[in-house]
Write a structure and sequence with these properties.
The chain has about 400 residues and is of the alpha/beta class. It has 2 domains: about 210 residues, Glycogen Phosphorylase B (Rossmann fold, 3-Layer(aba) Sandwich); about 160 residues, Glycogen Phosphorylase B (Rossmann fold, 3-Layer(aba) Sandwich). About 45% of the residues lie in helices and about 15% in strands. The chain has 14 helices and 14 strands. The strands form 2 sheets. Strands 3-4-2-1-5-6-7-8 form an 8-stranded mixed beta sheet, sandwiched between helices. Helix 2 runs parallel beside helix 3 and helix 13 runs parallel beside helix 14. The longest helix has 23 residues. The two termini are about 15 Å apart.
């Protein structure tokens, strides 16, 4: 088994961490696993990494170019990683190649073709759907480039042996491209930290409702609307927001913090254990996506919130998979109108609940986590999906 991704490790971003967890799980089942990833500029070399004292994981790392010219470096780094993958396949002859969407489109295309050359089964871990997600938020224009990228990714998605998506909304978006898709399986984002004995009755004596947003401050999260809504919350309202992470909206959040320092706190990104600790002291985990983004992505922060028994405050279309899960299970609250800052401000004020109401939601979070997002459930889904390819 070989896993290819630009980042790989316990402290990587969502996809890299998820694939690291998958590698750890596979080696625990005595399946030899090879990780092929990028690293900071330096000599090309091979290293071994033991996970839980299991030496069955080998890590090959390729150097990367600086990101001064982002578009050029993305393509070049994908080619470098592809060349390393070709070398590894020549030497190790993996039976299954797993690859993801980082860098988008190009890396998946290259690795899928390499898999075909060496007769390996190929698995596309479609963590985000590109180029649609980039077009929807204006990162690239809907023109010749996006159509070329769409054609390339359509080929990869249709020709791979297995395609893993996070939701039926994402699966439907892939099917809407046209053609037949008989190779799609659904798997959730697992939490980076397993649930522990979190006190369900926490914060009962705290008068202020604490809301946390832990994750990337990027274009997909609709943070400009959130900022507008927070600034409309009346003074002295017993609610506080903590934003934990980095991204292009960080400066806007810091400007809002200066305007309302008792309402908003902005903290730099930290490791998963510290983030989990902050979540345990919050009352709600904020989940927000720009309109229609649910069709192309699934926020990894959801599993982290639920692992901490943290109810979800969701600014997302109620009819999507995420909205339906929250409403059906009772593990949080979905905003009825997440396009209007005034309505969102009212929604934020509605999060001020009694201790008993919070306790009931926290119990539902634990149930949903164990049913859908626990590491055991997620890894069993992966293994059951991969087993036919390994035995073929």
């Amino acid at each position: 088994m070989a896993i290819v991704h630009s980042a790989f490790g316990p402290d990587s971003e969502n996809c890299g961490r998820a694939l690291y967890d998958l590698a750890a799980y596979l080696t625990s089942k005595h399946i030899k696993t090879i990780a092929i990833s990028s690293k900071s500029p330096g000599p090309l070399k091979k290293s071994k990494l033991k996970i839980d004292q299991n030496p069955l994981l080998q890590v090959y790392s390729a150097p990367t170019l600086s990101k001064r010219n982002l578009k050029t470096s993305i393509v070049t780094n994908a080619l470098i990683l592809g060349a390393l993958c070709f070398f590894v396949c020549c030497k190790e002859k993996p039976r299954v190649l797993i690859f993801s969407t980082s860098p988008p489109v190009i890396l998946a295309l290259i690795i899928n073709l390499i898999g075909k050359i060496f007769g390996a089964k190929t698995v596309y871990a479609c963590m985000d759907i590109h180029p649609e997600i980039a077009v929807s938020v204006g990162e690239i224009r809907d023109g010749i480039l996006s159509k070329i990228l769409m054609t390339l990714d359509m080929y990869t998605a249709r020709s791979c042996d297995l395609l893993m998506a996070h939701s039926s909304d994402m699966a439907n978006s892939l099917k809407e491209r046209g053609g037949r898709f008989n190779n799609i399986k659904l798997v959730k984002h697992g939490s980076p930290i397993e649930i522990d004995s979190v006190a369900i009755a926490r914060r009962e004596k705290c008068a202020t409702t604490e809301v946390i947003f832990a994750g990337n401050f990027g274009r997909f999260q609709n943070l400009d609307l959130i900022i507008d809504a927070m600034l409309q919350i009346p003074q002295n309202t017993p609610i506080h927001f903590t934003f934990l992470g980095t991204g292009i909206s960080a400066e806007s959040l810091k400007s809002a913090q200066k305007l309302r320092p008792t309402l908003i706190s902005v903290l730099p990104s930290t490791d998963a254990a510290q983030a989990h600790s902050l979540m345990q002291n919050a009352d709600f985990g904020l989940v927000s996506l720009a309109p229609e983004i649910y069709r192309f992505a699934y926020p990894g922060k959801i599993s982290g919130y639920l692992a901490a028994n943290l109810p979800l405050a969701a600014l997302i279309e109620p009819g999507c998979d995420i909205g339906k899960m929250i409403v059906t299970s009772g593990c949080g609250i979905v905003c009825g109108d997440s396009s209007n800052p005034a309505a969102v401000a009212d929604f934020f004020c509605s999060l001020i609940l009694s201790a008993e109401e919070r306790k009931q939601m926290q119990m539902k979070c634990s149930q949903v986590y164990h049913q859908l997002f626990s590491r055991e459930v997620v890894m069993k889904t992966w293994l059951n999906s991969l087993r036919p390819l390994m035995l073929d």
